[in-house]
Write the structure tokens for this entry.
Amino acid sequence: MNTRDLAFKVLLSVEKEKSYSALVLNNSIKENKLKGVDASFLSALVYGVLERKLTLDYIIKQYSKIPLRKIELETKIILRLGILQLLFMDKIPESAAVNESVNLAKRRRLQKSSGFINGILRNITRAEIKYTLPDKSKDFVYYLSIRYSCPREIVELWIDSYGRENTEEILKSAFGRANLTARVNTLKISADKLIGELKNEGVEAEKSPLDSNALILKNTGSIERLKAFKTGKLYIQDLASQLCVKALNPKRGDIMLDICSAPGGKSFTSAQYMNNSGKIFSFDIYEHKLKLIEKTAERLGITCIITDIRDAVNDNREIALADKVLCDVPCSGLGIMNRKPEIRYKEDILNNDLPEIQYKILCNSSKFVAVGGTLIYSTCTLNPMENNKNAERFLNENSDFEPLKLELNAKRLIEEPENMITLFPHINKTDGFFISAFRRVKL
């Protein structure tokens, strides 16, 4: 099947069925046995449209006499794909971008729309000035929203929380793919030896300055094909998640609870800090996710992880007190927009009950921390209501805990208490992430 047809199908699934782009895209690549240039082109088309959807729609409005809301979804997706190729992708001839878009419309039996699509795309090719952005001096928020394709409410939140300059840098970082970071499985190999083995497989790997067992990878191709992956010498985990475990500081012989553990990276990294001793109880609400954790633990040679189904919000079953409790809660995901670009368009992305759910999980989890034990609360979002506000509220309402200073060498961008840190993609080269630490002082 034509790569543009595949891109159309993936984008239609994301729009209509609210599917996860990465999941649908990977399935499409596997099912159609795409490799190399074709797989890369499909990814570029899908992620390009999702990353720039508001910008592309803004351009459509400048050329269309039909209001955007009245253009049917399939036609709109084809227009987005065509404009992306014309204005935001190199090395694609204008004629190919136009003709392939029209042919795609015909293959989708959109004969009535094909002339409309052809007209708009050809007008763009003829225009001396392809499009104009909103006036930056008149409405800076609207300018950023269209320039970086991010809903106005998110832009306003970030400007209020982190300032204008940082907001624009955060928005820039949401374009393109994030660094691919692996964790060295120190139970099997050292970082230096793994770097050498990866080099022999044609993969570039360098140590992160923030953690010597975090490797930034390049030229990997499919990770699953690597011998180092198959033999359990590494697994993929963002640097921010690795730093979260570093803050928890699990030690040999500890009893640890990983409250919302899937997909398991923090449990695996904790097992290495503990030298595969003690016990790690990895909880999740879904059995199939726990099965995946068990499968990966087996590949990595980790035997100290015990999985169990548990609803972190409503389960009141008692658990033995633990030395370390990790509470990485479900969140809005605004720190991982370069991994899940469609997440920014969710209608309830800010106006929801997530902060209350997160706080309930934190409070429930805190009951199982032993005196002198450590509790970590973390998210992969950039929203103070889910982050700092919840951490501050927890200390105000739980006198049996005190703030625990974070011993991380990550650069701080905003002023925060010593037991909290917000990691930013443009500063720390990580996902957008929040970590806070507490110590239990009494029962």
About this structure: The mean pLDDT is 96. The first helix runs from residue 3 to 17. Residues 102 and 115 are 8 Å apart (CA to CA).
